[in-house]
Design a protein that fits this description.
Length: about 70
Amino acid sequence: DTSNATNMGSMFNGMSKLTNLDVTHFDTSKVTHMGFMFAGMSNLTNLDVTHFDTSKVENMGAMFNGMSKLTNL
């Protein structure tokens, strides 16, 4: 349950061996920080953030940094 989360910064940072991640049901309506959230996930090819509510996010710096195999966002 992510409905009260405000900081998701570095949440999955450096998880380079992860090849599949489902964040489609994350409630991001209160999140203000997403910096480096997915950084370094170098083996992830698909990431669906279609339903992310980023209206309150103030920091998305390097959110997708190092995602070298990402082909679908």
